[in-house]
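Ticket #4471: structure export looks truncated?
Reporter: QA, pipeline team
Priority: medium

Steps to reproduce: submit the single chain below to the structure queue and open the exported record.
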Amino acid sequence: MLTGKQVRVRVAKNKLLPMYLDDSAHWRHLAGQLLAVYRGAVGRTRGEIEGELANFGGDGPQNLILQGLAKLLEDRCEYEIAADHPPEEIRDAVFKAAAIQRSQSKPGDPFDRAAVMAKAQVVLRDVDPVEHEVVVLFPTDREVIALEVEPLGTAPFFVNDDPQH
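Actual output as written to the record:
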């Protein structure tokens, strides 16, 4: 779904018409390039995809249109954290250790994050401590991999449903 900033339309005869987007060869070309980026996204990190999209920069309204088209395509992607161990198990161990520590502390006691991570590490013997702290609990775009992209048809982005136009 687009943000309010990305939706720029005007109303004419009970129709919503895009303000900055038309059926020109320029927009068709850029839309095709964006489609190609997302069709090839599976197995790539979110950071790699965003890096490729940075090449599509524009000024003013053009940049808003590109961001909006990319957002619509991004919404069709499913991502997963790239980790050697299931992220759910790591989160479960960390949150259980935190709950135990919190239940055993007195009101006003400081939260000992290092102790929680150490207790979780006891449960997660075969997991690298850096992996469970950085990659799973605080993933960056370098660790988030595109798993699947909802099929993107060949239908054009632009459809003129007004036969008089």
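Status: closed, not a bug. The export was complete when the record was re-opened. Leaving a note from the reviewer for reference: Residues 157-165 have pLDDT under 50 and may be disordered.
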